[in-house]
Amino acid sequence: MSTAFDGIRNVVLVHGAFADGSGWRPVHDRLTSQGYRVTIVQIPLTSLEDDIAATTRVLERQDGPAVLVGHSWGGTVITEAGIHPNVAGLVYVSALAPDAGETTAQQYEGFAPTPHFVIDVGEDGFGFLNDDKFKIGFAGDLSDADAAFLRDSQVPINMSVFGTPVKNAAWRDKPTWAVIGTEDNAFDQAMLQHMATRIGARITDVPASHALFLSQPDVVSDVIATAAQNAAVSVG
């Protein structure tokens, strides 16, 4: 498909915890209709190392520079995986953004708790979002039916990942954008704004829940397209 822009054509999308890549469908459809080549990573949520490896496999398949996008926990993943030479820009979608040497858990320190975002942890150390709190905590602006489907199809995460330090921070060297849902009950709003500001991201706020990739796909897609058109092409 021909495109009307001169810029980066490849987009790689990384989902977060308690979800899988299918939630990116509305964003995928909007971007592919504009001529972008979109690939969705299915991270296993078993360890930071495993999630980075899954993302790197997809980045290796790109035929040129790419914009790497992460939602929530996916932000930690792209922070490390984004050092790949095929990555020209980063987009954080209500996402975590640790620095090198920091753990994901450290990002929460000093910020308000989120009582509606309740994680039930099993004896094996994997966590699911609480069924009764799922909609208000994760998907408050989706229909009851859509929120129920996300709840019933959620993917658990190995909770130990939050204590694993990041070795590299790609946002220190690559242009960065952020989309923040201002009605996100998974994170304290001040925490989201602090992380995005610290990494020097161009910030777009949108009234949305944590599931903004589904509820606000136009805004999310527009920011990704802006990143693709403006990120410096740093790969040869």
Question: What does this protein structure show overall?
Answer:
It is a single chain. The protein has a single domain, classed as 3-Layer(aba) Sandwich (Rossmann fold). The strands form two sheets. A six-stranded parallel β-sheet has the order 2-1-3-4-8-9, with helices on both faces. A three-stranded antiparallel β-sheet has the order 5-6-7, with no helix packed on it. The protein has 236 residues and is α/β, with parallel strands linked by helices. It is globular and about 45 Å long. Helix 1 packs across helix 8 and helix 2 crosses helix 3.
What is the CATH class designation?
A: Alpha Beta
The outline comes out as globular
**Biggest sheet details:** 6 strands, parallel
Strand order of the largest sheet: 2-1-3-4-8-9
Low-pLDDT segments: none
Offer a concise description of the structure.
This protein has 236 residues and is α/β, with parallel strands linked by helices.
Keywords:
three-stranded antiparallel β-sheet; 236 residues; alpha/beta; Rossmann fold; six-stranded parallel β-sheet; 8 helices
Question: Could you give the topology of this structure?
Answer:
Layout: E1 10-14, H1 25-33, E2 37-41, H2 48-60, E3 66-71, H3 73-81, E4 87-93, E5 119-121, E6 126-129, H4 134-138, H5 144-152, E7 157-158, E8 176-181, H6 189-198, E9 202-206, H7 212-215, H8 217-230
Parallel strand pairs: 1-2, 1-3, 3-4, 4-8, 8-9
Antiparallel strand pairs: 5-6, 6-7
